[in-house]
């Protein structure tokens, strides 16, 4: 079987998730290729070596440039901080590597576009880590929509709210600076729900947004008595229109008290509605308007083996899958995409489209107007 | 005890609710005045008489002008179709009657303003039937906010969605015509959630809306093969800003499959969040961010005797109150307001403010821009 | 229309509920008779008179014997403490009055049987206030079962749990003494769920119970430093078998922390399941096993106008009814039963059957054995 | 690091779960030993070899006796059909192997006792696959109880209900025969909830059960027109008493329409209550009676990094873990137990105790009496 030699850059929060998914993917899914954990890059040789041992990689380096140019690497998997995605991806593409990058693809749409175009020009394959749409439950949502079970979509309401910066005493970190994060909640969180909206309803064409930095200053992490400026938005809301004419609203916040994994969506169609919360990632609410009126109601579907990609994890319904399992589906797509030409999506093109929507939201919020995303 | 002699105009859906509430109010609450069901008006003498018997009114008439000018009437209670509110209220005010009108106060803000000004000029008392804010559970929400339990409000998300026109085969009725309804979902439904936003967060100052008539034609009620134009919006979404600086989003729809009484709100503060759905009108979700991190979570409060106005119905918690009980609280406010000067709110001033917001939303949706509600 | 002249004894917690229901019943329902609030009895003349005014009764007395023998009374409505039910009911029956008694019918099955037999012998009509089965939602549950929508019933799980005595510092009151209450949680709470089991599934024929007085002593209400003995059970659980062969389990507790109105049931059939909690009294969960496997799930039905007795309160679905509305349905049944011969159920016969089950549970718990309820 | 060489017997439903857990465990947890997938046994050489490749085992065999006696095996992991557990475990113990067996440990308590005693005599370590108690959420439940946060436990209600045999047309399979399964729902499902009761509350000492075979005959799997006898119970309910005096009720069913993973528990204490459903395996309901009365309610805790064993999977709260992750915790316990002497529980002793309770329930249901589990 064809080998897919992985070079992983970055082993923080999301790098570890990748490692867990790599570890289990071949046991969960019958793959069309063989993932090989070839090389890992971290900021120091010691950390790189330690993590290579923990994650099962053969080699390690403190120099990511070495990794992206290594002839034994087929795929560069970028889990480094967001502001480095562009440089790393372009270098990898330049060396003819396939690239699997975490979201957001870049700090702004212009950079994302440059990356997507470079990949297309070089003919390499790409994948962006919008893992929530890989959840069997959200795949089921799409299947229900595609089947026409809820009719034509007329409205989408989506959120990605969390509360990791709700406490004003939480010190300023990289999330809060333009140089390292670009946008705030929009870039870190809304990227997921915009991608989900694209996945479930179709492309967003017009936006009109509002946003706010509610906590304007935060303690310096090293000197808490010093207050430093927060440079990007804590929360944003946006009216959207989709290419197919549907209306929608998307909201995001990093200060939404009580939301731990607040990616939610309600998709309303002419014949029914689906409703979902990522905090209950193994269930979907489905309403069908064509049922007898006295027996209408939202039905709680528990994700199970008759739904996409669930049976590989467990053949009983209602037994739940977890956060890392979504990454495992994503990596299955990566391996099968590279070795067998299976569809790899969301690719850099989609990563750019998401960035384009996010930038348009921010601009529209600054200029207090509607923006046509496509023409912009 | 001072008598409050009621003249009720209209006995349809909401008129019956008023009648039920009048029937029970004096047993539920220790009132400061004595409601007397004096006269009832309907479109024919027969119907008027029949309903007077059913509802316990002493006299009846098919001529509402007779009712508003009758010297034995203290309060004119308007449950007639929306397009008649203005004419009836102005006539009642002109005769020096207090006026208790169903929502929406009028078909547009200009009319509502005229009504509010007439009442102020004449010195009569007014009340608008935005009953959902009378629910003890929403009163509790306000109490929690007023206490500072969730800190400063930073975000409001509210909906009033129903699905009574979701089926495209439902014939066109008065809701769909500008002459009889003015706005569509905004006027019929969003009026409630805008009032609720005012009640919980404060005045809305700026709006930017979007709206759509999804089902553009409907069968004529008398000749179903004939299709007639729907003249107002099926759904609308709007970004709002409050006087206190909070952001918000409000949505409304009359074609939202599955929503039977979809008035919902999520109020996010700097220290916590409350979440509510009118379909579970006796419970409130409360999250406090200052709890120990490992024990944080949304708590389900069941409305009970320690919460406002509940104990009058039942002295045990969790025993639930119903839709008509909200009206009973409202009528308690009416009687005590007229006889003892207790606060009567939402009054015509608030009815006008709500209309002003709704008109601004519609205009902003047509002109694709933000509108300052106050200066407009 | 035939008058039904009511004599109400007792105006505490539940007496007030009756009063509210009497107040609204004729407006809510088109009745077949005319309820007349004739006389009210309380423990002192002052209190009796005050309550008569509040509740709208014409006359009052401090002597209930006077009430039960008054020729102008058609129905004696007993809301007095439980230990007085028997004496009052027998006196009323003796005077040929119809009797409407609160639950539990009596302190033990022998007394209840005597009452049922006296009523039968005298030919008077009876009704017991098991109001929860009057809720449109539970009526819907029965309709679903009767329709065969969930097949043959194979299992019933029911609870009536509350936490009003959860705090060990709550002083001893009448609930805790055999002389005034008879059984503890079984008599006060489980009476409702046993009646509900009869209503939904059929007669209980065999029981095997367990019970416990968890908090064995409580402070004397007048002298808190003095501890007094709790004489009856705080919690009980029981295995049951129904006449139709179904298995079941019923639990009750007055110290179940967190349960405010914890009447719940899950009824499992060969083709489906229904699930209900009185704390969400306007919704029912329904599961149908014959739906396509990938779309199976519990559906949340919101009670609405197509369900029994709801439309009289409100013609829109999902608008909720409240605790007192159940009593209103009950009183509708009372009036129509007496004047038009409509079915009045649960009658004293059912009140006795419930008592018989409760006594059998207690005996079985003491003797650690199964008991045949019917032969007992 | 010390190697722990695994010999896996059986690769069906649960064998695959083990394989997935072995694959990810070393990446998820910092282990104290190194699991080595040494040998795998299946019924034919071909299947054994195929699965060894899929699961990453070095060697394979169609002869499990060969595996249990192989000198290069440290732990025999038994995922074979239940009726084989005893023979295999005794053989493995006899060869001095540590044994990790799936539940139920054996078809009856006598066999389980023999196995536990053999292991003790030989000095080998044992573990039984009651994986649900390894879920961080149930570990949190135990932590809350152990902390005294809900006071002394007074009541336990637990279920393990599923609906895999709800359809009477589902052919008879091994679950339904005494020879292959022993007990029915009790053995297959209730084993888990009895273990959970032991884990959360303590040992069960007395039981009084009821049980039923509802669907008495099922089609022969090979000849559907032939009906064959179902030999064990479809559903059972049981009253229990715990060593610490608490009361409880446990129910189980394999025909409970709508339950896909219906392991649930409600633990009531003198100061609070916890409530859990495995279908929402990443959340726990917690009620504290000592909160201010007007703010009491059940709080939804989302499992997160401050709760036991969650952070290894993900450092953000509310991101959910899945079914296989529980097995991963279990295998972490296995590896660390064998190499570092960490506690390995539930061991064969507990497996036997669970079997003893299950047998006592069945006996008590047949003899219609209470049974003292310990003295039995």
UniProtKB/TrEMBL annotation, chains A, B, C, D:
The keyword Oxidoreductase applies. One of its GO terms (molecular function) is inositol 2-dehydrogenase (NAD+) activity. Pfam families: GFO_IDH_MocA, GFO_IDH_MocA_C3. Keywords: Oxidoreductase. It is an enzyme of class 1 (oxidoreductase). Its EC number is 1.1.1.18. Residues 139-274 form the GFO/IDH/MocA-like oxidoreductase domain. InterPro entries: Gfo/Idh/MocA-like_OxRdtase_N, Gfo/Idh/MocA_oxidrdct_glycsds, GFO_IDH_MocA-like_dom, NAD(P)-bd_dom_sf. The keyword Cytoplasm does not apply. Residues 4-130 form the Gfo/Idh/MocA-like oxidoreductase N-terminal domain. This is Myo-inositol 2-dehydrogenase 2.
